[in-house]
Amino acid sequence: MNNGTRGLAAATLLAVAAPAVGEPPQDGEHTSRISDEPAPRIKPEDIPSRPSLLLELGNPFLGSGPIDPGFELPGGAVAQPSLWVFGTYRSAVQVFNQGRDTPNLSEWANRLDLFANLQLSGTERVLFGIRPLDEDGTFSGYQFSPDGTDGSVDGFNFDVTTLFFEGDIGEMIPDADPKDFASLDWGISVGRQPLFYQEGMLIDEDIIDAVGITRNTLLPAGGSDLQLTFVYGWGRISRNNNVELSGQSLFGFFSAWDFPRTTINADVVYVHDGNGNTDGVFFGLSGVQRIGHFNTSFRVLGSHATERETAAVSDGYLLFTELSWTPPWTENHAYVNAYWGIEDFSSAARGEASGGPLGRVGIMFAAVGLGRYGAPLGNRPNDSVGGAIGHQWFFDDTRKQFIVELGSRYSTSSQGLTAVALGGRYQQAMGRHWVLQLDAFGSLVHDGDEGYGARAEIRYEF
After folding, report:
1. 329 and which of 24, 200, 271, 424 could share a cystine (Cβ 3.0–4.6 Å)?
2. CA dist., res. 183 & res. 64, Å (int)
3. Which residues, other chains included, contact 161 with Cβ-Cβ below 8 Å and sequence gap of 6+?
4. Predicted local distance difference test score (pLDDT) of residue 215
5. What is the greatest pairwise CA distance in the chain?
């Protein structure tokens, strides 16, 4: 999913209420089966009104009432133009120290993701986006420490960070196949766009100048759907070390297979360095499924430097598994995740603020994407094993949530980080557009050094 799509949906999600938390049976029968009693009828007056976007011209986003009939284009497509302007503003005060004799990093940091979505039809759109408060990992605000870096920070810019068109060929020229027998379900996207594959472990939201072609609705033997995607990227490619390099080209082939009991993703990427010798081959293979009452995923990823190993590309493998479930009679979420990094696995592309590939393990491994606040246990898998155990509670019809997580990693080399960390995150929706987030952690490194961090973030979805 593209960044713009995530932001577009976020303002609406704040207004949605979840079902009430279930209660355990009173007759002593321990079961979490679905009740035979009918669910209460939802009354229209009980549904909260739709929060509006910053600007809506044409059909409102997720609005109700008559839809503009639009007009027919050559080829039979019907255009119903609408312009939606939306975004997310984030501001945080934070302090971070990972231990190991590292300095305190304290700051006030800001980020603004602003988008304009020109919806041409149900399947075609043009998305324009800017991030005027941060550039190349520098976020506007004020740094308090360490000495020598304190003072105001200027990350203001007017760079276009997102500008692409996406659509479906069969929907753009329906007259070419009026009975839908010619298999024209080809999706296309071209322009400056964020990519996200293998839950961010292979490619994580690096905004790349690229063209993508997707063949949808294929029927694999024994499955219900097969999707094949080819991506060619030619500019703005940031490598594994979160640094954008010039002269890079990315070629990727991605597939998603839906079977009755699992979804398989098989991906391979080649990155060519036209100005140096950091070419690399990368792959990812994953299975996502539900086993009994448990949600599970298993992933195997690998990278190989075809010329020489650098911070941009190196040889290695990453094995990852996650297990999660909903404790009976609750709406809560419990999870156990683990990984094993063999040698120095590197991602094909990573955005400047996305950190390393271990962010999926848990909040003790994830980058926050704002300022210099890092991952308490790091997010590079180099020669290490580790994992996280966590529980997420939901309150007040899911408008409040609290996560407690215990994470640890053990270095299988003499130079890596071995540590354990305990942390928590509290989030609360305020009104229709605001979200408060509080984070804190404490860690203990193997040599007895201590790490700690805390942050308070306010987020405005509009």
Report:
1. 24
2. 33
3. 129, 130, 131, 192, 207
4. 94
5. 72
